[in-house]
Records
---
Amino acid sequence: MNPSHASEPAALPARHYLNAPATGFMSWANTRDHKRVGVMFLVGTTISFAIGGFFALLIRLELLTPGPTVMDAMTYNRIFTLHGVVMIFLFMIPAIPSGFGNFVLPLMIGAKDVAFPKINLLSFYLYLVGAAIAIYGMINGGTDTGWTFYTPYSTTTATKVVPVLLGAFVLGFSSILTGLNFIVTTHTMRAPGIGWNRMPLFVWSIYATSVIQILATPVLGMSLLLVAIENAFGWGIFDPARGGDPVLFQHFFWFYSHPAVYIMILPAMAVISEVVCAFSRKNIFGYKAVAYSSLGIAFVGFFTWGHHLFTSGQSAVDAGIFGVLSMFVGIFTAIKVFNWTATMYKGSISFKTPFAYFVGFLFFLVFGGMTGVALATLSLDVHWHDTYFVVAHFHFIMVGATLMAFLAALHYWLPKITGRMYSEGWGLVAAVMVVLGFNFTFIPQFLLGNEGMPRRYFSYPEKFWALNVASTAGASVLGFGLFIVLVYMLVALRWGPLAGSNPWNSRGFEWATQSPPAPENFETTPVYTGGPHEYDEDAVQQPALPAAEPKHV
Amino acid sequence: MNEILRRMLWLPEQASEHARQVDGLHYFVIITTMVAAFGVFATAIYFFVRYRRRTDEDVTPQVHPRAIHEVLFIGVPLALFLVWFAIGFPQYVRLSLPPPDAQDVFVQGKKWMWKFAYPGGPNAVDTLRVPANRPVRLLITSRDVIHSFYVPALRLKMDALPGRYTQTWFTADKPGRYEIFCAEYCGLGHSSMLGELVVMPEQEFDDWVAAQRRNVLAAAQDGGPSGERVLPSSNVVEEGRRVAAEQGCLKCHSVDGTRHIGPTWVDLYLRQQRLKGGKNVTADEAYLTKSMMDPAADVADGYQNVMPTYQGKMSPPEVAAIVEYIKSLRTPAVRSGPTEGPAYESIPRK
Amino acid sequence: MSETIQSPLAHHFESLEKQAHAARLGMWLFLATEVLLFAALFAGYSVYRYLYTETFVAASRDLHTWVGLVNTIVLITSSFTVAWGLDHAARGRGDRTRLLFGVSILFALVFLAFKYYEYSEHFHEGQLPGRFFTYEGLGPGPGGPIFYSLYYLITGLHGIHVVIGMTVLAVVGWKAGRGRYTAEYHVPVELAGLYWHLVDLIWIFVFPLIYLA
């Protein structure tokens, strides 16, 4: 915790992005600084996570008994729909890329900002507008279609599905603009010395995420718009009573939403590549393997959507093709997992909170990822489809992997973003609660799926009771652990000890600036002579720090 | 061994050979998953212990993979996943190839019940009876939104799509009663769209079908000139109860006072029913009949307008029988409303 | 013409050249997203064309092909005038750019006028989308309503993009006329041109797909 290479600073740097070029509401509302945009996204997505998490606790509360517990069926159906919509569109997709990506990516490539700072700000406003429209729908009763909006239920329901769909449509554009910005930034704004094969692995994975964002999101936007039009005006192409094909919607929807799950996991993998190197004080084991596997996931991920339709009556040939391709997409994750683990070999490992989340991430990614491949094994999916097995699988990845990575990123980069450090003791306590609580919440759900409990069930036969109680108990521990994180993080923001420019002694490129960074990141364009995370004898921090530390007033 | 693993993994009974084979693959897949996950996790923990940080200035060697490493990292999982596929795909294909001598059953999902029909009769609601050891092909469709016909004990599932028929098949070999669930979200009653698969020994099944067809035939022969069904039983209330169960009324209306998707039938007759929009109406025979024929007209306050119409689906004697049944559902000890005093009308003054 | 112009170089770019390159790359990526937006609709059209072949073929024939052809020529010509305007911008003649962009906008208005004419014909005949469809000339069956649902969705979405394109051309053309761009840096004119060419290109796919049976 106490870096031995420099004493703790007496004060924050005089000038940093939080107090320059100006302070006050308007300076934030009109900012062109990627760091401020990143912070705003982090705040927005964290609030959304709290809302979605609140819905999750309500779900688990309702499922505590086989019959009605605290609400009626219609309310429950709306709550699980909103849980999905809020968590996926308002948290999982934007949190790491638009939050941490925005903050850290330009720093990592020696750039002063992203390629299009005004479009960056626009993407944040689109996030707010999309969220507002969706929340308006929620407040007016919400919808009960599930976040998957399957037709013809969604095109014929009288619930407030149209605002929720339109909110998601607008959020899609926020996502597209962020992705567009990152791709152009990565291509055109790397400082001298950062070739493609010397970029931090975080940048590689965010780049792959951005490619998916710009290619897949428009198709989702169109599909949701079609459902909204059909629901509102009664003309469309999915109503079977008028010759439409309801399964066509499923194809359109999953063409986006399957790559979307890679939008949700690739940024998490981006973070983990950074964390494992920094806390093992070690270069990554197979740089090219990890870098190119991100592109592999993005590419192959586009061809596997049919594995969500194995029981929809499609032909066995189609199912077989999608099944085989799904096997391939799992390989890229396996490559990363093995390379990350091998990175620890002969490292110098420090078990700080970010690393604790990495270890949890590793187990959950392997188990969750392999249950995903298991689900793609056709005959098994016939039993598991639309049961709690699927719910457990995707929560293992989305919560067990992505959320853990988000928390790792939060703890790793808090010192860079705020100049302050959190309490390591509480960090480890909360990490243990989160990991244990998570296990107790979702492992029973795998078993419930095996038993045959379908998804989205308000009431259930008594034989499913015990496992549901166990799951709710775990959820309470998980929720409480996350609440503890919130508390000590807020405390750290105000009263945390000053961290200095590089408390982790990390050789990641973003650490070669003051904490918090200056508004323009670098006064002069830095030059890089080595790769990121090189900790051997001859390596030095990249880029080379200026001769004297900036004066602290 | 199969039984131990099946119980450890909370899998339901295996009511067919297909279920047993799928479970075999399941055990293989889950065991290798757990081995892999724990293996990676244990390796990480071991590396953490062995390579703990000594000082913050530690220097570490640059370690790069040799080609063989990445070949193994790719090759081993790929081989494993392809083996899973090679076992699972033929099992899946088999589900789409029913044998030509399979007995057909038509399945129709609708909010929120399952209707079954055998070619040549009879029909059933929510209970599917099949013979053991004979292949049965299900031709599945939906009346409204997408549902999904799911029998965990058979490891069988197929979506019910509106406007189209999907098919699947099975050969159950263990007589017993197994749950049927709806596995595609379909609205308010999604989790109460439960059914029961009754696997009967072959002879019993044949006898049952024959008896059912005789009843139907007898009823048809006794029918009036217009061909309407005449209720064979002389107890109208009992008939009403039977028809109500058959027509699926009891999916939404309870007979024990529980509030469900529709108002309970207990003490319904002659109750002051508050309607959406504030009007009050007495639930007399006319109201009850109208509710069956045109349910959207007078929706009860606090309930959703989701009741389908039964116009043309029941003969007048059947409708009357249901009304009689509802009339019979009283709890004499329970007062349905506050005591009312006598009502005075003011005397018109000239 | 124009006095000293403030350098358009933004603070976070090293050079004007890099900035221009980034802007172009960004625009191409954005165009890719637009293509995918339409691709979803084209995919839907293809599926239903396969399912209801005869009705779709008959409905295509029913459309006024000559109007579609005229509209195609109008749009292609407007793309030509936009390219010509860009050429002038590259030579520093922003006033000519404004003129030519104005001409392109007029062509776009002609396009929209023809579409208006077509739509009113359709409304008159009862060729409306989905449940509003009352036209009898295509026989019973769902093919007609579905064809027209897709017709309005595709041409409607395209029409919206024509309007957006016109707005972009108007803003950029006006700025060019005010001397905001130079021969060295006229990237916004390029980007406007790229967007307009995409709008034209999409129509070039729509026309054979929908009009030519």
Note: The first helix of chain B runs from residue 2 to 8.
---
Amino acid sequence: MTPLPGSGLAKGLAVTLRTMTKKTVTAQYPDAQPELPPRTRGVIGLFEENCTVCMLCARECPDWCIYIDSHKETAPPAAPGGRERSRNVLDRFAIDFSLCMYCGICIEVCPFDALFWSPEFEYAETDIHELTHERDKLREWMWTVPEPPALDPGAEEPKEIAAARKTADKLAARIPQTDPDSPPEPTEEKGGTP
Amino acid sequence: MNDALDVALRLAIVFVVFLVAPLLVGQTEHKVMAHMQGRLGPMYAGGFHGWAQLVADGVKFAQKEDVVPAAADRRVFQLAPAVALLPYLLVLAVIPAGPKDGAVGQAVDAGVFFVLAVMGVGVLGSLMAGWASANKFSLLGGVRTAAQLLSYELPMLLAAASVAMAAGTVSLSGILQAFEWWWLPWQIIGALVFFVAGLAELQRPPFDMPVADSEIIFGAYTEYTGLRFALFLLAEYAGIVILCALTTVLFLGGWHGPFGDDGLGWFWTLVKTALLAFVIIWLRVSYPRLREDQLQKLAWTTLVPLALAQIALTGIVKVAINQ
């Protein structure tokens, strides 16, 4: 059956009228902050206490927008007669957000969990040079990094928590048997023979 | 002395309405169009839901430089906005808002003739602007305006003639005095033809081929800046007010309402006019622009025959009643 002539025109009017009665989708941004989903790629925060200056992030960055300077410090031996220990100390960590393409490779590649996504996005500047943010600014953004989203119900326990719990359980199992007379029994740590 | 005061007062009221009503329609268009598209529209100017947006726009236009292109026909170019705007002011003065003598700026005996003739002059402004701008897009817009005027003036006149036939008078107040509720179904075809043709004459979407901003920039108004451009915009919205008021007076019974014709006449006129203005905005949001050939086809193959049929119907019913 062919549609009634002019029914398309009426449908057009109905659509606009219906839209008028519905709630608008406009986000009044400066007045109302947007609700961002977890893992939003706003800005990259640096947890510099974790950084070992391994330079992996700088080398993996496709845009070469990460600047890292460091120097080596030598710590005196822990015990007399020991060996001196040397470590890298971070002097400068800067990300040029005018180059950054927010791919997140640096965050993925960091083996020490020193880089994180923060949902903070209001860091526009009037000069492109001012978009290079130094370590203090990057450290400040760490405070805006949200907690990782909760795991799904029934999901596997995170690896580090599982490992910690295993150790704790083992210790707890050992404590009641510990008395000064008998030496601790050799524990069955490896393999767990059936 | 008293007469002079009376005239001055009437003129002042007409002038204030002429300045305020188009702004109200414009603001309504901002908001209605926004909400029909799921947006909010202006929200900042003036504080409360952007009520002062058009005032702010006006201030902006007033601050802009008034440029006349070097190759333009200066005098005609500068005169065009006034030619586009003033006819609507003249028309507004003769539209009756209520049944009493005080509710009309100046009652004219040949009201329908006067109104339609003067409204036709308004389109001349676009023609002048298009020709005088020395710009090919302006010229295209001007020529399209002319073509549109030629084709749509005819059905508009025929539809208005049908009402004049029904009432047996060409005075706007006379038509309203003769109005009965059953004229509404009787003249409904004429009303639709009049409204659509008026819409096309105002170059409102979906009949905005002459200004079609996505293909000929802004048609005849391309070269205009600042206040002169603002006057053209004001003319467009004044045109909406006039068209809606005229349709109300000719076809919807003007001051006749469900109750209180004497005291509330002006109210019914306003309500009907506002509703029609809403419909104009609604049409703009809902429909895409008609192509130039579709425009001409609609006028000559649909509206003109419909208007003629309406006249025939009016004549038959009129003769049947008088027997």
Note: Residues 16 and 295 of chain B are 35 Å apart (CA to CA).
---
Amino acid sequence: MYYTDGSLIGGEPPVKAVDGISFEIARGETLGLVGESGCGKSTLGRTIVGLESATDGTITVDGTDITELSGSGLREWQQRIGMVFQDPQESLNDRQTIGETINEPLKTHDWKTPAEREKRVFTLLDQVGLREEHFYRYPHQFSGGQRQRIGIARALALEPEFLILDEPVSALDVSVQARVINLLERLQDELGLTYLFIAHDLSVIRHIADRVAVMYLGNLMEVGPTERVFDSPANPYTRSLLSAIPGSSTPAPDDLERVTLRGTPPNPRHPPAGCPFATRCPAKIKPPKYENLSDEAFDAIEAFRDVLRDRSRRETGLSSRLKRRLGVGGDGRSVAVIVDELFKTVDLPPKAQTVIDQAAETAELDPDEALATVNEEFNSVCDRESPAEHEVDETGRTSRCLRHRAEYASPEDT
Amino acid sequence: MSRPAPTDRRATRGDEPLLSVRDLRTVFYTDKETIHAVDGISFDIYPGETVGLVGESGSGKSVTARSILGLVDEPGAIENGEIRFKNTELVEEGWDDRRGEIAIIFQDPSNALNPVYTIGNQIREALNIHQGLSGAAARERAIELLEAVGIPDAPRRVDEYPHQFSGGMAQRAVIAISLACDPDLLVCDEPTTALDVTIQAQILDLLNDLQAEEDLAILFITHDMGVIEETADRVTLSTPVRSSRVRQRSACSRSRSTRTRPRCWRVSPAGPHQTSNYPPSKERYRHRTGRPRPAGSPHGVRWLSTSAGRRFPTPSRSTAGPSTRRRVSSPARSTIPEVRTCEFTHTGGCRHRSRERGHVTRDP
């Protein structure tokens, strides 16, 4: 699923929101989808419902590719699938009563007669734990938890088999979360629903999901049964994510060492060429000629590369570029200062030192060239090759990391 | 999972609290009703320690923070109580003499920053007001501050606008602004709630480091018990209903194992952890009904209608009219529980905890 900026001439590379992922959901199961904000979780959900159209690839349900559907076929599919949105505040129409809101999908799809529709709405209210009199009320008269129940009732209106739950409890207080989750579990049992549960809260996922998919920058890093993924995470990203949850009652294994990741996920317009996680990975494979480099030195080099990457991507106006070329107004010392700061406590081999110094000199005028120099010198296999899916264990759990290859130490050992 | 466990630093710091709040009541008057947002809370913060303030949304946590900084606007007012900071009574004498010594970080960094000024400009503004720095010196100091909060490439970043910063970066910038006035007390109002868990870990690490370097006292407000466990020396629980009162204070290491109040039990295990191993049982506590509104005149236990530890007959809010409710007599309904000390560092305010949980309580 790519987003282009729609300009006629030139234009930027497209935003690769979801970038070539494959997974399956069995009937009646809950697949949890986790990841940081902006990693493409919601786009994936919206593409499945048909709110976005996929650039490439297939989504097959009972043998039909739903990305090909249009017109009445699409409408039919949309009756079989429901969606619950994150923000119960935004997703309800202020000017419609709850009855009208829940009735809306029934009306749109011309479901039976008006009288039967109204009966259906009352049944739905009862199913999600609301009362009859709520039919005539407006959204502002409800609390956050109740509004989310309304959203769930609306999603269930057309008796779907499959629900996409896009962060359904993120906006709620913890104690209210528990009740909405209980409701979702009960409904799944009663109605035999299949869930795609999107969340960034790992504790929620652990509680509700049968299998979990961990997403990073439009890619699925690890997919497997919930227990296995949480008890012995195989991918470096899953490990970092789990270890970052604060407190002692976290869903992460007790012996997991805390890793605080550097920086933020890269811009999906310019994803890394190799492994999507390569820019922040704590277990990144060192280039062969620097195999014996200390971890601190390697981290410092990676941090320096982040700075250069950031500089070369910066969209700068014509005037500031001109000023830089002419050598006026620029902050001439800044890169040198950064280099001093980063490398003051680490020992670099002479060759590496030369390259860093050279890059520091050119960075001010031509960050692109500086970046290219550093990239070439410290080119790791993680920067070049995109890892393939690797089957981790007999449960069919897969993980994408080059460290699963026999010649490298596995992610658990690093 | 090892960020160094917080210790009770109070013992080593002498007995003089940096900030002392006593019986604080902040009330909002509207045409329709009077809202008791903060209703008689008391707590101390000692130099260099972190005190956590926990509670659900609407429990009055943020109003407490704003009251401490003197930021409560019309139609709200601090009705009663004292806020003593370094021997200055702020409610009476006003905040003017102490400006800059207490700083605040808000939840949403994108709202806290002005989109039409550069980050550097906003830090310089604080430096100018509080330290009288201007020109190149202010710029230099702004860069230093950005570096101190872990922003890479600070000399360049200082000239950028808030929209060019990611959420975590923007929150770092807000922390840099709050440090610009060189405060002794930092009030963090849900500083990581809007952030992803990996970025949250970075910010928590940063606050820990800054506290060690600058010897800051921190009032950390959050609804996440996990965050509190990692950051706070002591915890104060704000009751999530009707009005906020301090419900339980305890040394943080204790807060999960020896909870004295039903409400406190419920707040943390209500979280969807499957592996919760909380006393008294593995069952999760749940709300029976929603939260009462903080309006009206306060009588009795505020969280009564939602208390899981309650034994007294209370008709549900939806079916019973006011007269029915008045007829039901419950000791918890008619009186306000006192705050009592139980064990050493642990205070709680619930009337039947000793019976229910077998806790030994002592009068102070």
Note: Chain B touches chain A through 53 residues (CB under 8 Å).
